[in-house]
């Protein structure tokens, strides 16, 4: 039975070359490892670094979850360095991260002005970025994930700045990089060549790859950088799945560490849940990652600050061990 509702005809769209777009973030914004960064100090950074070290030695997972503001903070080299040195063994990101990572590798710039381009109906409709849809169709046809396919294609490309790609580095290091996409969330879903079924298939595979990594969470660490929705929700569902299986095998997954890095202030003790009458109750990284899921023996930390400061500060903490 066919739908009784009409759909938007994407063939009517005008797709423009990305060379005509003004990108807000240019190559010089991306920090080298030796560059000075905004100051950030916190006494708990060393504790998180020690827990990453313990997890590394035990073979437990060290997962970094991130939203689009992490690569936009210009710290891609720092993330790649953490992976290369074994501090991170899984990267989980939303679709925006994949887009910024791809654009940075290809043109050495990313991020368009929403305020400017939404007025003219041009926002997101750039020809080159739409290539990601072709790669995801390939991923689905090969029963591969979004992250591994994008990483492989960037690594194999002639793009001039592929050394800055977090996904390419993950693929090269054989570290899972998973892209947890929400249909309609990302600019590539506007394009006529977007296949929603392919995105669903490849991203769901990434979810199962992520859940497989979560099976090593006992004694492990989950870091969440600025992901208010994807990070907490994907982590929560995967944790339920791995605890379900662990319980059948007379194992527990309770003693692990979570750390959230975000800009939002948390009133009072961040290790306690707020009342539902408090708007802060609905900040998922707090109640999900810092309170509920570590209630049976885990430990959590919160670091309030911009990623351009906090991510390099965490790297300095592990280097100091």
Can you give a write-up of this model?
This protein has 321 residues and is an alpha/beta fold. It contains twelve helices and eight strands. It has helices at residues 45-58, 69-72, 76-84, 95-107, 114-120, 131-141, 146-156, 166-172, 196-214, 230-248, 284-291, 307-319; strands at 23-26, 62-66, 90-94, 109-112, 177-180, 221-225, 257-262, 299-304. The strands form two sheets. It has a six-stranded parallel sheet, with helices on both faces. It has a two-stranded antiparallel ribbon with strand order 1-4. Strand 7 (257-262), helix 11 (284-291) and strand 8 (299-304) form a beta-alpha-beta unit. The longest helix has 19 residues, at 196-214. The radius of gyration is 20 Å and the shape is globular.
Summarize this structure briefly.
It is built from twelve helices and eight strands. By secondary structure, it is α/β, with parallel strands linked by helices.
What key phrases describe this protein's structure?
two-stranded antiparallel ribbon; 8 strands; alpha/beta; 12 helices; 12% strand; 321 residues; six-stranded parallel beta sheet; globular
Helix content: 40-55%
State the total count of DSSP E strands.
8
Seen as an oligomer or otherwise, the chain set is: single chain
Provide the structure class.
alpha/beta
Average pLDDT confidence is 97
The shape, in one word, is: globular
For the record, give the distance between the C-alpha atoms at the N and C termini, rounded to a whole number. Answer: 63 Å
Compressed to H and E, one letter per element, the order equals: EHEHHEHEHHHHEHEHEHEH
The radius of gyration computed from the alpha-carbon positions, rounded to a whole number of angstroms, is 20 Å
Main beta sheet strand tally, sense and closure: 6 strands, parallel
Strand proportion: 5-15%
Count of runs of 4 or more consecutive helical residues = 12
| Spatial sequence of strands, sheet with the most strands | 5-3-2-6-7-8
Low-confidence stretches: none
